[in-house]
Amino acid sequence: MKALEYKNVSFGYRDDSLAVKCVNLSVEEGEFVAVLGQNGSGKSTLARLSNGLLWADEGSVYVFDRLLTQKNEREIRRDVGIVFQNPDSQAVASIVEDDIAFGPENVGIPREEMRERIDRALKAVDMEKYRGAMLSRLSGGQKQRVAVAGILALRPRIMIFDESTAMLDPRGRREIMDVILKSREEFGVTVLMITHFMEEALLADRAVIMHEGKIAAEGKPREILKDADELQKYRLALPKTVEISRKLRAGGLNVGDAFTAEELTGEILRAYRS
Amino acid sequence: MKDVSFGQYYPVKSFVHSLDPRVKILFLIVFITVIFVAKEFLALGICAAVLLIATLFSRIPLTKFLRAVRGILFLVLFTATLNLIFYPGETVYWSWKFLQITKEGILFSAFLVIRLVLLVLCSSLLTYTTTPVALTDGIESILTPLTWIRFPVHALTLVMSIALRFIPKLSEDAGTIMNAQRARGAKLDEGGPVSRIKAFVPVLIALLISSFRLAEELGDAMEARCYGCSKKRTKYKKLKIGWRDILAFLVIAGLIASAVLLRVFPQFPF
Amino acid sequence: MRIVVENLTHVYNPKSPFATTALSGVSLSIEEGDFFGIIGHTGSGKSTFVQHLNGLIRLPSSLKRKKKKGDNTILKVGEFDLTRKKTDFRALRRKVGMVFQYPENQLFAETVFEDVAFAYRNFSEKKPTDQELEEAVREAITVVGLPYESVKNASPFDLSGGQRRRVAIAGVIVAKPEILVLDEPAAGLDPHGKKEIMDLLHTLHSSWCKTVVIVSHDMDEVAENCTRVAVFAEGKVLCVLPPKELFRRSEELLRHGLDLPLTAKVCNLLKEQGVELDCDYTLDGFVKAALARGKDT
Hints:
The structure holds three protein chains of three kinds.
Chain A: E1 2-11, E2 20-28, E3 32-36, H1 43-48, E4 58-63, E5 66-67, H2 73-79, E6 80-83, H3 96-106, H4 111-124, H5 140-152, E7 158-162, H6 170-187, E8 190-195, H7 198-201, E9 206-211, E10 214-219, H8 221-224, H9 228-233, H10 240-250, H11 261-273
Parallel strand pairs in A: 3-8, 3-9, 6-7, 7-8
Antiparallel strand pairs in A: 1-2, 1-4, 4-5, 9-10
Chain B: H1 15-18, H2 21-37, H3 41-58, H4 62-71, H5 73-86, E1 92-96, E2 99-102, H6 103-129, H7 132-143, H8 153-183, H9 193-199, H10 201-224, H11 243-264
Antiparallel strand pairs in B: 1-2
Chain C: E1 3-12, E2 20-30, E3 35-39, H1 46-53, H2 60-63, E4 74-77, E5 80-81, H3 89-95, E6 96-99, H4 112-123, H5 130-143, H6 148-151, H7 161-173, E7 179-183, H8 191-207, E8 211-215, H9 219-225, E9 228-233, E10 236-241, H10 243-246, H11 250-255, H12 262-272, H13 283-296
C-alpha cells in the first residue's frame, strides 16, 4: 500500500521562493525515503503539504489512500508526524515527560495508556533517564530526541523528518539517525527524511533529489550519490568518500566508488594488493 | 544562558518544597488577605511567626530573603516616610508648617512597613520553593472550576506554560544578540539613559524578529502534534494531596481563625 | 596581534547553587597568521573562551580597581591587557571581530547597507563621511561575495539563508578587524553553502584579517582548513597541535568522545591492516599519500 502520495502537486509562496512545482512522488508503506536538495529547493514545503500545514494550489495528496481534505486533516494529522529542524522551537512544556504528553493529551488518550505510550517513546529515543528533566538544560541532540518522542507517542504511521539533524552537532546527528532507524524497527513507521547530509541519505531505501521545486532525480542512494555531474547541477556535493575514490582513480590507483570509511579502506587495500 | 538562574526557584529539598503547589498558592492568598485585614500588631505578629517557621522549614538561606526585601526597600521607605509626615493624629510629637509627626502616624507607618515586608517575604517563599511548572499546574488546578462557565482555563495555562518554557530560550537569545551587537560596537553599557535606550533598538528588533520566527515554528510544531484536533482533551498529570499538605492546610486554617478572632474581638484577652 | 592566555578560569553564577565552572586554568596562545581551530563538545567551554577574546566576558580583575593577590591570570591580545580595568575595550572589539553562531539572527536594519554600516559607524572615532562609509560598506559586501549594487538597498530578510549569513559576516569585517573569530560559521548550511563559507574565510584570511579563529564541530572542516587546533574538554585545553599531529592521536580524541575526520578514520583502518600512511589529513594530502604508497608497493 502507498503510505504517502503526491499527485501533480504544485504550491507557490507569494515571492515564488520555496515553491513546489508539479511534484509526483509516492512512498510505500514501511519504506525509508530520503529527500535531498539545497536550501530553498522546496523540500521542506513538501513536508508541510503532507498534513495540511500547507495546502497545495494544485494537485492532491493521499495518505494511506485517503485524499487529504480540510475535513479529514485532523484525522490525517494523527497518521503523519513531523519532526522539524529547530530543537528549540518544538516543545510546549518545560519538563520532558510533560512535553511528550502534549500530543496524546490533544487527541484525548486516557491517562493509563498515555503513561505507557510515554514510557515506550522515551525508551525508543533512549531518554528514560531524563523523564523529569528541564528541557532547557538538555543538549540540542537530546532536545531533538524529546521532539521525536513527542511524535512517537502519537503513534503515527508516517514520520517526516524535516532537516531534523541540520542544527545539531555530529554526536546529536548520529543520535537522531539511530533513533530514526530504531523507530522504524520498533514501530514499523514509514519514514520520509529531508536532509542535506549525503551520508544520512545512504541509509535510506530510496533517495529523491529536489531542485527548484521539482523532483530532479530518484533512485537507489548509491546510484544517485555517485553521479558527480548531476549532483553538481543541483548544487549538491559528492560524499567525501566518493570524492576521494575518484581522486585516487584519477591518480592511477584502481579503486571503485566507496560510500563509507570501511568501504574506502577495503577498496584501497584491494587496489594495493592487485 | 548559563547566567540566568531560572525564575527564582531555589533548588534544595525541604518540607516546604515538597508541598502541593495548590496548598502553597492558597496559603499565599490567605496570608495576604489576613495581613491586609489585620488591624492589630498581634495579628501581624502571628503571621510573622508562622512565616518564620515556614521559612525555617524551607531550608533557604535567610540572606536570600533579605535580598528580596532589599529590592523593595526604597518603595517601603518612601511610603513609610510619606505616611509618617502626613498622617493626621492627636498626639503630636513634632510639627512644621503642614507636616507633623504623630503617635498615630508612627504606628501606622510601622504597620505599613511590616505589611509590605511580610507580603514580599511570603511571595518569595512561594517562588523560591515552587518551580514555575508546578506553579502553573497549581493555578490550572485551582482555576478548573471556571471551566463550568466556559472559561478557557487550559488555553490560559498553556500560554503560561509556553511562556515559561521559552523564558530561558529567549533570555539566551537576548544575551547572544546583545553580545553580537556589542561585538559590532553597540554602546549598550555606556552613556545616559536616552542613548542607552537608542542603543538597544538593534537588539530589540533582532530579538523580535527571531521570536516571531520561533513562534511561527512552534505553531507548526503544535499543529503537527494535533493541537486542537479533538474536542476531548485528557490530562497527563494530576496533582495529589498528601498528609503534609493537609497538615500545612491546618496551619493555615489556624492562622485564619486567630486573625479573624482578633478582627472580630479586637480586645480579645490573649 | 598575538593572543596569549594563561590560567584563565571562568565560573558562571559564582557563589550560587547554579554555579558552573566553564573554564578552569586554560592556557594557550594564538599566533598572528594562524587559521586557528577550536574543537570540543557542547559545554566544553569553547564559546566561553572565545567570548573572552574581545572582552564580551570580562575578567573579574578588569572590573575592580585592584587585582586580587595571587591572581596569576594572563589574557593579552596584542597590546591589550584584558586583566586590567584601564584597557580600552571598545578599541579591542574593533580589532577582534566576532561572528556568532547563526549570525543572521543579529540582523536588524531595513537595508543591507545600513546593517553592514552599523559596526563601521560605531567604531569610527568621528562621524564618517558618506563617501568613507559607502566605500567601506561596498568593500565589505563585495569581499563576502555579494553583488553590492543589487543588494545594498534590499532588506536583509528578503535574502536567502546563505546570503543573510554573508551579510552578517560583512557587518563584522567592515570594521577591518585584525583577528576574526567565528563560532560554527557553516552551521545549518547545505554542502554547497558550507564550502562557499569556508572559501570565503580563506579569502578573508589572505587579504583582510591576519588571524582567523573558528569554533567547529566538523572535523573534516578543521582538518582541511586549520593551521593549528586546540581541543577543549570539560573547561580545560587538552592540547594545541597542527591537524597533522592532532589526528595522529586518534585514540585520545575518541576517548573524549570527539570525532575524527574521514581521512583519519581511513588511515586508522588501514593501519589496522598493516598499511601506514603519512599524511596531513587534508583530502588532497590523503590522496597524495595513498597514491605515493601505491607506487611503492
